[in-house]
Write a structure and sequence with these properties.
The complex is a heterodimer of chains A (about 325) and B (about 325).
Chain A lengths: L12 H28 L4 H4 L13 H7 E5 L2 H6 L6 H7 L3 E6 L2 H32 L5 H10 L5 H15 L5 H26 L2 H9 L4 H12 L1 H17 L2 H6 L7 H4 L11 H21 L1 H14 L1
Antiparallel strand pairs in A: 1-2
Helix pairs in contact in A: 1-15, 3-15, 6-9, 6-12, 9-12, 10-11, 12-16
Chain B lengths: L3 H14 L2 H8 L3 H30 L19 H7 L2 H32 L6 H13 L2 H11 L6 H10 L15 H26 L3 H9 L4 H29 L3 H6 L11 H10 L4 H31 L1
Helix pairs in contact in B: 3-14, 4-14, 5-9, 5-11, 6-9, 9-11, 11-14, 13-14
Classes of the chains: A mainly alpha (about 325), B mainly alpha (about 325).
């Protein structure tokens, strides 16, 4: 069409095809480890450690059964004396000469991840929304210094913070509690939350609230009834970031929790079967743990992309 | 235009319509009061969980406190912990390992990330679908995924070894990524690159998209070669974005802990013992709280100082 088809603005079709090919190859290679996690979860322990690695295999739920149960090995005589199994998973376990001794801790650890993840996300978005609104609309003394202070708290290595937090929590009895972890993750996330949300509030025209206030709304009502509904996209994006951080966090969870409040990341590597690691069970746990993040990432990719590139674009 | 008198009337009517109690409680608050009520909790939380612990760490770094013996009297030892840290060969080794890790991950990720962004910017069909696929690894938990990578790296049964062995024509059990002194540093670099190249890519993509078309069109009119356009337009305009991405990732990798703990926990020997892993060992296994606090402060000051110098350089690049 145009006489001066441009190389960058309007790439030639063949360069597009080469670019697409290279990107697709890279994307497929990076997907292999994730697919392998998913596949290993459905293998039997024997299949998972076969050589060469098996791509085609007959799927089994043994990994998932092993993930959620603890089992004990029994003598053949004892096995023969048992009444017939009353469920498919019991049958599966008995085919390995074992009986189910009880549920494993995975369910508990996963629930802890959910409680701590959602609790801290709610708090950091709540605090972040209020602070972002105030920083965006009011003349706050030392505003730039405060904003920089809020951001700089993210530069500290987690282990450096963990030493005094460990001592502090031990003194006031917050170690290994849900509340302690929620407070800690909120403190880590709130800086990101304030910065991201301030960007979203800045984009809402002040005239909206001013009009509402002329109509008799108080400042607080104007914030609540006019600004807040406009912020929902921003709040959703910020919440996803906070949730993913709290969900994936490992260092604090490892050092500050051991039992009641332990989240899944420090627990999953400790899933041990007979004779070393039970890889299908580990893969099953990893799959269950990764699925929510994969789901949210694909569902909210536009908002996520905005959040990731936010810092670089704004500065 | 509304005259002030009608405005007043509207305000009056609205004021009368608001229930008395609410009006006194809510309307009575000045903007300044609301500002502090809104910001206060955040500042308090950060003071309690970030600043207070930092000050406490500074204090501890001047004492001989041991966290596993809380009842022992705390002795002030002056700068002895700092002198010990700085004259400790292990610490210097740890910092060297960290520097090696940061430099190599950043070099590889910048090349790969910029390359991918440059290709994606061609806007071929389906580019947003492939972008989403590529960014998946960076959303996952480094500890949980790192743990699974130890399976991929198994010498006989691991997929990684099989694939490398297959393409290089060597035996899959002839090398151990996590067990060999010369390979372990690369094992952690490979996983970090797999996870975080997408981040550099996304920031570069934002940079590429920020270049207005007319600049290229003007260059085309001036008959600038594509090579010339790349080095005189694309690279300088993306550089500030790229440098910021490198800053963020360098800080994160300098603090790197979770991924490497699960992959190698510093081994074999101490060839992958990054600063944070050493710090954790000193603080929570040897319980040398004072000593490790001093090391933590040195690390924090290093990151903070380096970041500030870097930001100055970045601003100079931007002003060009």
């Amino acid at each position: 069409m145009s006489a001066t088809a441009h190389s960058v603005v309007q790439p030639k079709p063949w360069t597009k095809r080469i670019a697409a090919g290279a990107v697709v190859v890279y994307a497929l290679i990076t997907m292999v480890p994730i697919l392998w996690i998913f596949m290993t979860g459905f293998k039997t322990p024997q299949d998972s450690i076969s050589y060469p690695p098996k791509v085609v295999f007959s799927p089994s739920l043994e990994g998932y059964v092993n993930l959620f149960t603890t089992r004990s090995r029994q003598t053949p005589e004892y096995m023969a004396s048992l009444p017939p199994p009353d469920s498919w998973y019991e049958e599966l376990v008995r085919s390995r000469n074992m009986v189910i001794a009880g549920p494993s801790k995975f369910g508990e650890r996963f629930t802890n991840s959910v409680i701590i993840g959602f609790g801290s996300t709610f708090l950091s978005v709540f605090l972040g929304t209020l602070a972002a609104y105030a920083f965006s609309r009011f003349k706050v003394p030392l505003k730039d210094d405060l904003l920089f202070f809020i951001l700089s708290t993210r530069m500290m290595p987690p282990i450096a913070v963990a030493i005094p937090i460990f001592l502090m929590y031990r003194t006031i009895g917050l170690s290994d509690t849900h509340l302690g972890m929620i407070i800690l993750y909120t403190a880590v996330n709130v800086s990101l939350s304030v910065w991201l949300l301030k960007g979203f509030v800045d984009e809402i025209p002040r005239e909206y609230e001013e009009a509402a206030m002329i109509d008799g709304y108080s400042r607080f009502q104007a914030f609540y009834k006019v600004v807040l509904p406009q912020m929902t996209t921003g709040i959703a994006a910020t919440a996803i970031f906070c949730l993913i951080f709290a969900w994936n966090e490992y260092a604090f969870a490892l050092l500050l929790t051991s039992g009641t409040a332990q989240t899944a990341p420090p627990f999953i590597p400790t899933i041990i079967g007979e004779g070393g690691l039970d890889w299908p069970a580990v893969a099953a746990g990893t799959t269950i743990f990764l699925l929510p993040v994969l789901f949210f990432t694909i569902l909210l990719r536009k908002q996520l992309l905005r959040g990731i590139t936010f810092g670089a674009v704004r500065k | 235009m509304t005259t002030p008198s009608t405005l007043d009337k509207v305000a009056d009517r609205a004021a009368r319509a608001t229930p008395d109690g609410v009006a006194r409680r809510v309307r009575g608050l000045s903007d300044k009061a609301i500002a502090w009520i809104f910001i206060g909790p955040t500042i308090l939380l950060l003071l309690a969980i970030n600043i207070f612990p930092l000050i406490w760490t500074v204090y501890l770094s001047f004492t001989n406190y041991k966290a596993n013996r809380p009842n022992r009297a705390i002795e002030w030892v002056g700068s002895r912990n700092y002198e010990r840290v700085l004259s400790d060969g292990d610490i210097w080794h740890t910092l060297q390992v960290t520097a090696h890790f940061v430099v190599w991950t950043m070099t590889i990720q910048v090349i790969l990330g910029f390359g991918l962004a440059w290709l994606l910017n061609r806007q071929f069909k389906g580019h947003s679908f492939w972008t989403t696929l590529i960014l998946l690894p960076m959303m996952l938990s480094p500890a949980v995924v790192g743990n699974f990578w130890t399976f991929l790296y198994q010498p006989q049964i691991g997929l990684f070894n099989y694939v490398i062995g297959f393409f290089a024509g060597i035996d899959a059990s002839s090398f151990e990524m996590l067990g060999q002194v010369n390979l372990a540093p690369w094992a952690i670099i490979i996983v970090d690159t797999w996870m975080w190249t997408p981040y550099i890519m996304l920031i570069c993509l934002a940079g590429l998209r920020s270049i207005p078309d007319y600049i290229y069109e003007a260059a085309e009119v001036d008959r600038a070669s594509p090579w010339r356009q790349f080095w005189s337009i694309t690279v300088p305009m993306v550089l500030p974005f790229l440098m910021l991405a490198v800053l963020f990732r360098s800080i994160e990798n300098f603090k790197m802990f979770d991924l490497v703990v699960e992959l190698t926990s510093g081994g074999p020997g101490s060839v992958t013992e990054l600063a944070s892993i050493n710090l954790k060992r000193e603080a929570f296994e040897k319980w040398r709280t004072g000593y490790s606090s001093a090391f933590a402060i040195i690390l924090f000051v290093t990151v903070f100082g380096a970041a500030n110098i870097y930001v100055k350089a970045l601003n100079r690049v931007k002003q060009r």
